[in-house]
Amino acid sequence: MHKTLIPYPAIPQLAKTDIAYATLDPALRPFFHLEPTVENFTQAIAERARVTTDRSALAGALEQQYQHLPDAGLVREHIAALRRADTFTVTTAHQPSLLLGPLYFVYKAMTTINLAAAVQQATGKHIVPVFVLGSEDHDLEELNHIRLFNKEIRWEPGVAGPVGMIPAATLAPVLEELKTILGDTEHAQALWSKIEQSYTQSDTFAEATQFIPVMQDELTRQTAQHLVATTIERLSALGFKSQAVPREINLFYLQPGSRERIVLENGQYTVLNTTRSFTPEALLAELEAHPERFSPNVVLRPLYQELVLPNLAYIGGGGELAYWLERRSLFEHYGIPYPILVRRNSVLWFDKDSIKRSLKFGFVPARYFDDMDTLVRAYIESQADAEVYLNTEIADLHQIYNRLAQKAQAIDPTLEKAVRADEVKTVAHLQQWESRLVRAEKQKHEVSLNQLRGLREKLFPGNSLQERSDNFIPYYLKYGERFFDALKANLDPFDAGFVLLEDC
Question: Got the DSSP string for 445-499?
Fold first, then answer.
């Protein structure tokens, strides 16, 4: 593999806040704690060590979750190590996704694994990579489909409630369709074996008492709304778009097949879309008796995650880190260490077929981040027998009319307006000629331009980043385990740029 780093500001598909944090824009400095460098993990460890974590409860809960899963020695060692005071975590998170969803799901996991190894080597501490699956989420439409070989595979379970609690048996039609698509190659058979084991031997799609004081505070004082809204206002004043606006109460109430918001109305707490209603005293009693029935939303979830884990860093995409930047004041209010924010690796995978097809156009791989119109223009300019774009002529024309306007104004100021109107008409005529020249040149290269459009669509499906659209399965069918090996070997969590991998 050949690896190239493209500076984040050169990637037009990325958001302003994403680029600002990735480049450590000074304007964002008040909104995070430690910069994401390996040297800063020593300080993060010292700060985290001063905060008590119920390690026994954490390890016990993880052991219970993993007891029915295939035995993996390293996983068991990591869980056991969490009982020790010299063990810490680095964490990423996502909601459960059908067949791992888009590629960035894999990239998040691999970045986290490599970050754990780098921090462990630098500090001598045992660092455990953790991937938190938000199984209480109920945004089924966000995760129930994947794009595979230009076809959408969709999961329609026919039941409601938290996604992680939906019976795995509802995936049977999806798995049947997938098996047909995979084929019978060696890599396909190996992958099918893993998928079948993962989904058919589980009862649900995805397999918290420490948080009670925070939830009490949220219900009675609505602290998150005030603190986070204030931070969002400060970020907005700097030109950064808000990510997750807090509600008055940022908790859901869980029941079998249901996860609904809690709202405060006329002194009573109501669970939306249900008949449940509580007095303040009754709701707090319910919280003490059944904390598992209360689920934090996106505003409070980071707080809960950092409370139960001895965590040093959170690894996320640009959008995720943008909403973490809105949460620092919330962490300070509750005295919970704010983790180092590490941007996950972003990848454009350029396979051999794409490289071969690209040679015809003479573009370096990084050029494909440009939009299609820019690529077409560049190709036409490189192939045309004569200059087809009239930028120079139009610029010359503007200079001529500027001189004419000056003379007209000196003779009769009322004539300048007529000169400018004539300028607009004449420039429009030149632009029409330019369109005719370009159209004629495009017709000469129609086959090549269609091939160029096909290549860019492969690299940027639907004009979106490859990692936000493609699933890992086509890559696994082609490369097998070598796909993951290549990612592990080439993804550095401290890379200062978008990773372009060429399969040379």
Answer: THHHHHHHHHHHHHHSGGGS-GGGTB-SHHHHHHHTTHHHHHHHHH--TT--SEE
